[in-house]
Amino acid sequence: MTKEEILSAFRYRHACKEFDTNKIIPKEDFDFILETARLSPSSFGLEPWHFVVVQDPALREALKENAWGAPKKLDTASHFLLGLTMKSTLMKWDTAYLQDFMRRVQDLPEEVIQGKSKFIEQYQKSDFELTDDRRLFDWAAKQSYIAMGNMMTAAAMIGIDSCPIEGFKQETTEQILKDKLGIDTDKYGISYMLAFGYRVVEPREKTRRCIDEVVTWK
Ligand SMILES: Cc1cc2nc3c(=O)[nH]c(=O)nc-3n(C[C@H](O)[C@H](O)[C@H](O)COP(=O)(O)O)c2cc1C
């Protein structure tokens, strides 16, 4: 791809408010989008995310109640994703989950796992002061958003529209995740929703500050 083609995908991407209900994203294309999330970078490579794709109309309806930023997207999106983030029960430096993750996924030898755990401990306790559940969750959530950005860009590159959504009540939505979607909310919280599909109307022209206002060179 040329630089101009990549930039035109960035220009093409916009927060799409309503999708064409006659068009469904092909499985192969949505798998491609999910793969860009899976391959996203994260601090220490801990992948503190999980993605739930909600296609059941009844579950989408249930999500609407507390999601003021989402109703039209829940009604019209071809695919509707929930971006979950791991909580401190999984992400704190001393959890069994992290030990197992480093062994099973990262394929690290025991002595390296011990060293890395100590490093993560120091990082969480002192470098970034991730000293309570909320701070740890917000730190992990920042990384979940990298996957979100990658999914939106990847989608735009293949002509698929998207809309990121934070317009919902976190606590009550989590209760719905627990009650209706069977998600273990002791382990996962919701960071964002992300709708995908195909636009019905062209967006207004993008507004952004100029490059000199957003970049400083020293
Ligand atoms: C984290 C985040 C949360 C957002 N939440 C909502 C939302 O709840 N509903 C909505 O319609 N748009 C939402 N947006 C879209 C923004 O309003 C939009 O990206 C911004 O105005 C820039 O416009 P553009 O994406 O079309 O270039 C959100 C965007 C981000 C990045």
Automatic annotation (TrEMBL):
InterPro entries per the UniProt record, alphabetical: NfsB-like (IPR033878), Nitroreductase (IPR029479), Nitroreductase-like (IPR000415), Nitroreductase/BluB (IPR050627)
Matches recorded under Gene3D superfamilies: NADH Oxidase (3.40.109.10)
Domain Nitroreductase: 11-198
Cofactor: FMN
Keywords: Flavoprotein, FMN, NAD, NADP, Oxidoreductase
Pfam families, per database record: Nitroreductase (PF00881)
Family recorded in the similarity comment: Belongs to the nitroreductase family.
Protein name, per record: NAD(P)H-dependent oxidoreductase
Naturally occurring in which organism (per UniProt): Reichenbachiella agarivorans
